[in-house]
């Protein structure tokens, strides 16, 4: 019976939307994004400019905040978009996977296929499967202003990347990154300071 108490990973889409307080407009925009807009062309293909506008307009109605002149490229996944913020002149590049509770500052560039994961799994108990143990509280990811994140980088829960930093392609960021740092590797380590 203990197993049946935790239903974190057994919710359907409707119950998740209700629990997160998503209104009708946000749910409709989520449907339109995942059913249509996510699959529209990306630069340099014909129609990419219109597709980018459509994705940005949908994101404005889904995310907590979307700044000016932002870009949401094709094939980006952001869950339900709850508590996601995207600052001015920042972009979510092709194939990005952004968790809820992610705050991205101003002038943030990222390569394709960046993953930002604010959730995790409990695994302390050995008498039941990890799947049945549910999840700890989500730990938001914060990316400050003027950051460049290389392609295929993975950023783990609770990480704060300081302003003016560079994260090398293919890095796994497990700890906070100080401002003006250049980090890389798996796990990411300081390479040098930009200043």
Automatic annotation (TrEMBL):
Keywords: Acyltransferase, Repeat, Transferase. The keyword Acyltransferase applies. GO terms for molecular function: acyltransferase activity. This is Acyltransferase. PROSITE patterns: HEXAPEP_TRANSFERASES. InterPro entries: Hexapep, Hexapep_transf_CS, Hexapeptide_acetyltransf, Trimer_LpxA-like_sf. Transmembrane segments: none annotated.
């Amino acid at each position: 019976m203990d197993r049946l108490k935790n239903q974190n990973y057994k919710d359907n889409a409707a119950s998740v939307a209700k629990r997160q307080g998503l209104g009708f407009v946000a749910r409709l925009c989520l449907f339109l994004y995942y059913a249509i807009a996510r699959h529209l062309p990306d630069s340099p293909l014909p129609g990419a400019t219109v597709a980018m506008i459509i994705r940005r307009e949908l994101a404005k109605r889904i995310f907590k905040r979307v700044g000016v002149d932002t870009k949401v490229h094709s094939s980006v996944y952001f869950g339900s978009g709850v508590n996601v913020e995207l600052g001015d002149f920042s972009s979510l590049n092709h194939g990005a996977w952004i968790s809820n509770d992610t705050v991205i500052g101003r002038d943030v560039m990222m390569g394709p296929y960046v993953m930002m994961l604010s959730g995790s799994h409990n695994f302390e108990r050995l008498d039941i499967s990890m799947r049945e143990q549910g999840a700890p509280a989500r730990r938001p990811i914060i990316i400050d202003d003027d950051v460049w994140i290389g392609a295929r980088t993975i950023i783990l829960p609770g990480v704060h990347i300081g302003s003016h930093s560079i994260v090398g392609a293919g890095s796994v960021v497990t700890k906070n990154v100080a401002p003006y740092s250049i980090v890389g590797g798996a796990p990411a380590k300081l390479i040098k300071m930009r200043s």
